[in-house]
Design the sequence.
């Protein structure tokens, strides 16, 4: 096996030159569509909802969180909508869910999360899960 000689970092530019690829900075950018970021955020919200809101097993019927995303030049704004169990410390739980989702989206996409808006659709008690939605 042959290893490149010379100063550190020179091997990667030598490799790019031998393969005919331009340097990484000149190759372009990866674009992640809004709907993909929204799906990542919705999954992260589901995980955070069960972890942070301490959703009891009898509240499995909570509707899955929904998310929308607006990606603009390296940053993203997220809007989440979810149910929470009642009783819960709503401000604290919401803040932790927002932080968890922001961290996970940033980790998975490399985007800076500028804002996470969280709307609580409804508060669910154990009694609410046994009956359907009232119309």
Sequence:
């Amino acid at each position: 096996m042959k290893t490149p000689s010379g100063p550190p970092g020179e091997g990667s530019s030598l490799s790019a030159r031998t393969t005919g690829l331009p340097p990484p900075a000149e190759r372009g950018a990866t674009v992640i569509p809004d709907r993909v970021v929204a799906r990542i955020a919705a999954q992260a919200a589901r995980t955070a909802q069960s972890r942070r809101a301490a959703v009891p097993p009898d509240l499995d019927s909570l509707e899955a969180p929904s998310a929308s995303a607006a990606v603009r030049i390296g940053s993203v704004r997220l809007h989440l909508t979810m149910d929470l169990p009642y009783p819960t410390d709503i401000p604290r739980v919401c803040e932790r869910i927002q932080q968890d989702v922001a961290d996970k989206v940033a980790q998975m996409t490399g985007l800076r999360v500028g804002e996470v808006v969280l709307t609580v659709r409804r508060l669910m008690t154990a009694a609410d899960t046994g009956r359907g939605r009232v119309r």
The chain has a mean pLDDT of 82. The longest strand covers residues 112-124. The beta strands are 66-72, 75-85, 112-124.
